[in-house]
């Protein structure tokens, strides 16, 4: 499919679209083996970020015992991390446009390593919270710069595939925080497990310095005369694509991320009585099939932009209605097989979220100013995740011995429902 067709379908709103498109074709990055190497190293950083971000799920019960806290205080550990992550998304987007991926990723790895070391040796919950805060600050720079690497090194038609593969790498990082981290915690203990993770982050930073570059040789550096923060946000929100991307990210990736960050293990262990090993295998297995399909499905938005609309609507409503069924199941939690199927559906949606949400985020924007739009999309999704994690912890704490995971997930379902309705309205509205 030609780039002209792709851009026209994705809603470019300029009368000189044809002239602009020809100019963009001539200036597109070449891609190739060097591009895959640079992106691959950046993706390793995202793998580590996802390991750090989701480690609290496998470590939740260990942390509860180590720091002697209840569900509400336990949820504070990943919550402060998410709060910082969300608040930093706009600054992270601007830095992605200004500093470039190489420097941003090195900074992020250093900050995450410091936070992980502090978390490893924390003697109390306050120090642990400070460690998670640093992890969230470092994590906030990672994804947008991996996506930025894709925009700077690959042609536009490959962007959705690169975004999907980025999501795949993130899924692998999330898996590594399930069974492997659980095994490490049980085998070598809390401090050794997390100190080792911090050391790996520092070594990866050295690899980024050695091999990652911001753009292919001969490609011009971006102009320093970039819009202000306000102008960048207004520019992004003036296009329908970034707004659709924000709503899509606020539903498609949310439920499985809520489970991965904190509540997956407690749901399966306490709600269904599974062992930690079985719970980890279920969460790991849920990601296996969707991750295997990513290299094929991730190509669809880039090659067939008209397929984005039915894909995003189908995923949003399937995830929303599936979880609505879980929380509304009469007489308590559904049978394990039903919940397991919903978890698999949610994992599939999470893996597909980047290729759709961030492909929409680029609609109408030049490549050198996509960072802010991507930051808004990421902020939207993780605001919903943060609210889902916190509300579940508060409701579980309030219900005490009669803790109900169905009640705990109601706020998350309502957020997904609101986002799905928003997507439907935006995609039915005629283009201006």
UniProtKB/TrEMBL annotation:
GO cellular component: plasma membrane
Source organism phylogeny: Bacteria, Bacillati, Actinomycetota, Actinomycetes, Streptosporangiales
Compositionally biased tracts (Basic and acidic residues): 11-20
Pfam families: MFS_1
Bias-annotated ranges (Polar residues): 1-10
UniProt-annotated stretches for the region Disordered: 1-27
Transmembrane region(s): 33-52, 72-92, 104-122, 159-180, 192-212, 246-266, 278-298, 310-330, 336-356, 376-396, 408-427
Gene3D superfamilies xrefs: MFS general substrate transporter like domains (1.20.1250.20)
ATP-binding found in the keyword field: no
Compartmental location: Cell membrane
Membrane topology: Multi-pass membrane protein
PANTHER family: MAJOR FACILITATOR SUPERFAMILY MULTIDRUG TRANSPORTER MFSC (PTHR42718)
Record's protein name: MFS transporter
This protein's UniProt keywords: Membrane, Transmembrane, Transmembrane helix, Transport
Organism: Thermobifida halotolerans
GO molecular function, one term: transmembrane transporter activity
Boundaries of every Major facilitator superfamily (MFS) profile domain copy: 38-431
Cited InterPro entries: MFS (IPR011701), MFS_dom (IPR020846), MFS_trans_sf (IPR036259)
SUPFAM superfamilies for this protein: MFS general substrate transporter
């Amino acid at each position: 499919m030609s780039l002209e067709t792709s851009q026209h379908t994705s809603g470019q709103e300029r009368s000189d679209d044809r002239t602009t498109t020809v100019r963009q074709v001539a200036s597109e990055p070449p891609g190739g083996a060097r591009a895959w190497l640079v992106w691959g190293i950046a993706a390793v950083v995202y793998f580590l970020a996802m390991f750090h971000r989701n480690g609290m799920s496998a470590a939740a019960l260990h942390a509860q015992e180590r720091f002697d806290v209840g569900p509400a205080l336990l949820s504070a550990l990943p919550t402060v991390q998410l709060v910082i992550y969300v608040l930093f998304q706009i600054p992270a987007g601007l830095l992605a446009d200004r500093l470039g991926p190489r420097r941003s990723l090195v900074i992020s790895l250093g900050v995450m390593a410091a936070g992980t070391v502090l978390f490893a040796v924390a003697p109390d919950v306050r120090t642990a919270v400070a460690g998670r805060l640093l992890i969230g600050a470092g994590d906030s720079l990672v994804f947008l710069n991996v996506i930025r690497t894709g925009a700077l090194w690959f042609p536009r038609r490959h962007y959705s595939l690169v975004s999907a593969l980025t999501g795949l790498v993130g899924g692998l990082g999330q898996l590594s925080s399930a069974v492997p981290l659980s095994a490490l915690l049980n085998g070598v203990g809390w401090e050794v497990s997390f100190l080792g993770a911090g050391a790996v982050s520092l070594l990866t930073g050295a690899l980024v310095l050695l091999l990652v570059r911001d753009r292919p040789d001969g490609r011009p550096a971006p102009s320093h005369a970039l819009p202000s923060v306000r102008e960048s946000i207004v520019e992004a929100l003036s296009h329908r694509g970034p707004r659709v991307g924000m709503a899509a990210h606020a539903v498609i990736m949310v439920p499985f991320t809520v489970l991965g960050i904190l509540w997956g293990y407690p749901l399966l262990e306490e709600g269904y009585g599974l062992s930690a090993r079985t719970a980890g295998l279920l969460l790991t297995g849920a990601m296996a099939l969707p991750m295997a399909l990513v290299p094929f499905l991730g190509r669809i938005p880039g090659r067939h932009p008209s397929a984005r609309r039915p894909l995003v609507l189908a995923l949003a409503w399937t995830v929303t209605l599936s979880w609505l069924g879980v929380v509304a199941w009469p007489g308590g939690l559904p049978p394990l097989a039903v919940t397991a199927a919903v978890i698999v559906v949610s994992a599939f949606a999470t893996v597909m979220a980047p290729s759709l949400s961030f492909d929409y985020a680029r609609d109408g924007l030049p490549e050198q100013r996509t960072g802010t739009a991507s930051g808004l999309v990421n902020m939207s999704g993780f605001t919903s995740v943060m609210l889902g994690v916190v509300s579940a912890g508060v409701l579980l704490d309030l219900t005490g011995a009669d803790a109900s995971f169905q009640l705990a997930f109601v706020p998350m379902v309502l957020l997904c429902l609101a986002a799905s309705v928003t997507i439907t309205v935006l995609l039915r509205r005629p283009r201006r």
